């Protein structure tokens, strides 16, 4: 690879809003066979909205909003927006604790309350709540359980829609022979529903934030991997992958960890970047 050819490649792409850190990144991009995508904010728009509340709406929403008031999770923003719209005010909380990949616990109105996935529930959900949860998840909705003292008060379903560019980008990548994978902390059913909407080949769900990089490393044993993500939790996976591709709308740490940054957050630019790598190296080889 000659430096001049690489400069031409990266200079042209920058005009398209595709920032490529250096020539090695482009060279690595040319070897990639598997493309792993984060779900929230990468495949989806990342602006989730509450769609369903199961249980006593007022108390479920009030407990949820109280718990989420201090949370930085994207799901928290959806719940707080819904509480505001319903004019439900959050109660003060003590002992706030964010549990990685699971949810939040705190003391609300003098009781130990929680919000999050089913790992937060002591024992199991009632058969009725479990079947309602399954049905909502099949509709590609993320369902969180709200409860006190380990028992569920109700459920909140939250929907985040795929970006308009997601399905066309996946089609184009598959046509070019890439293996596409979704990697998420969300539930398997939700992940599969979104993956089928956009045409992603494989789903790896229920992955704790701290385990994403290890999953990427495991996939790298088969073939070189590009990881596409946007979150704080995605930084280790972005640096572990042969090529890290960060969304321009992502967190600072994700952007710093990416070898490629997509300023427009458009997944079609993953195709453009990889095609550019192929063209650059085929021309100068
Ligand atoms: P993702 O990979 O989609 O960003 P996370 O690893 O952040 O997912 O979270 C995994 C799951 O844990 C979420 O789908 C949700 O069920 C639960 N969870 C995590 N944080 C929260 C929170 N603040 N409020 C409610 N649920 C949460
Ligand atoms: Mg994300």
From TrEMBL:
Coiled coil stretches, renumbered: none
Localisation: Cell membrane
Family: Belongs to the cation transport ATPase (P-type) (TC 3.A.3) family. Type IB subfamily.
Name listed for the protein in its UniProt record: P-type Cu(+) transporter
Organism annotation: Schleiferilactobacillus perolens DSM 12744
Shown chain mapped onto the complete sequence: 294 to 578 of 642
């Amino acid at each position: 690879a000659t430096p001049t050819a690489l400069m031409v490649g990266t200079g042209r792409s920058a005009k398209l809003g595709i920032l490529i850190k250096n020539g090695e990144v482009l060279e690595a991009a040319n070897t990639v066979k598997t493309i792993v995508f984060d779900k929230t904010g990468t495949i989806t728009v990342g602006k989730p909205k509450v769609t369903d509340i199961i249980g006593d709406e007022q108390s479920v929403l009030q407990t949820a909003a109280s718990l989420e008031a201090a949370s930085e999770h994207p799901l928290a923003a959806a719940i707080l927006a819904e509480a505001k719209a319903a004019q439900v005010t959050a109660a003060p909380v003590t002992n706030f604790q964010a549990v990685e990949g699971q949810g939040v616990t705190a003391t609300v109105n003098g009781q130990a309350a929680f919000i999050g996935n089913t790992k937060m529930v002591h024992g199991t959900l009632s058969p009725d709540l479990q079947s309602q949860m399954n049905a909502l998840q099949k509709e590609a909705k993320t369902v969180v359980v709200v409860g006190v003292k380990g028992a569920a008060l109700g459920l909140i379903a939250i929907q985040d829609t795929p970006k308009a560019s997601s399905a066309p980008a996946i089609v184009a990548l598959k046509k070019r022979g890439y293996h596409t994978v979704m990697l998420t902390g969300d539930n398997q059913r939700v992940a599969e529903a979104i993956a089928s909407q956009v045409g992603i080949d494989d789903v790896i769900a229920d992955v704790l934030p701290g385990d994403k990089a290890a999953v990427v490393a495991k996939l790298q044993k088969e073939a070189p991997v590009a990881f596409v993500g946007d979150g704080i939790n995605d930084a280790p996976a972005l640096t572990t992958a042969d090529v890290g591709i960060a969304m321009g709308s992502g967190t600072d740490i994700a952007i710093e960890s990416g070898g490629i940054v997509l300023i427009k957050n458009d997944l079609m630019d993953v195709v453009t970047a990889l095609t550019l790598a192929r063209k650059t190296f085929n021309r100068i080889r």
